[in-house]
Amino acid sequence: MVASIMHRITGVALYFGTVLVAWWLIAAAAGPDYFDFVNGFFGSVFGMLILLGYTWALMHHLLGGLRHFAWDASKLISKQMSTKLAYATFIGSGALTLLIWLIAMLVR
Question: How many Å apart are CA 16 and CA 36, to the nearest integer?
Answer without folding.
Answer: 21
